[in-house]
Amino acid sequence: KAGVTQTPRYLIKTRGQQVTLSCSPISGHRSVSWYQQTPGQGLQFLFEYFSETQRNKGNFPGRFSGRQFSNSRSEMNVSTLELGDSALYLCASSTGQGANYGYTFGSGTRLTVV
Amino acid sequence: AQSVTQLGSHVSVSEGALVLLRCNYSSSVPPYLFWYVQYPNQGLQLLLKYTSAATLVKGINGFEAEFKKSETSFHLTKPSAHMSDAAEYFCAVVNNNDMRFGAGTRLTVKP
Hints:
- The complex is a heterodimer.
- By secondary structure, chain A is mainly β.
- Chain A is 0% helix and 53% strand.
- The relative contact order of chain A is 0.32.
- The chains are: A mainly beta, B mainly beta.
């Protein structure tokens, strides 16, 4: 059974640009969540999608957005990149019950903003 | 809102020694609790989870954790550390599908 797949693994962008990250969950998992990981702030919750609907949202500015497709694949987008957006972005999937039963994480996309 | 505190950002043990990583939580309702491990340049891997079935939870790689409601703790232990256990460990609490992580504890294992 394939795990959670995130693409790309590494990305370098310039301040002011936008970026789109992709996540393919484990087959049969309908919930996808996104986290930002930085040395200073640790793991911070961005948002969760279930059946193409945003079910939960963290405390991030509107520059951070996401969506989920009918096949449960998810994308997150960051517009007008800032240096502080440099981070490891982790995607996690779970069954319909969501976080209560635990997440399976992907290997992440490391975004560097220069 | 729920939160997690991991005591000690760095823990160093000798190979073969006991591993004890501390986690305390706050939650207004009975929580779901998790321990994850992260190796360099990788995502998080689930070690074990507490979902109210049993207070002593056994996980992968010889780790276990005990839920103590009176102490609001969920400490992670392993009787004998191995070099391959060197990694960062995260405790997490979930209420109503909202998973919050602790700041993490970096475990170093000395030969």
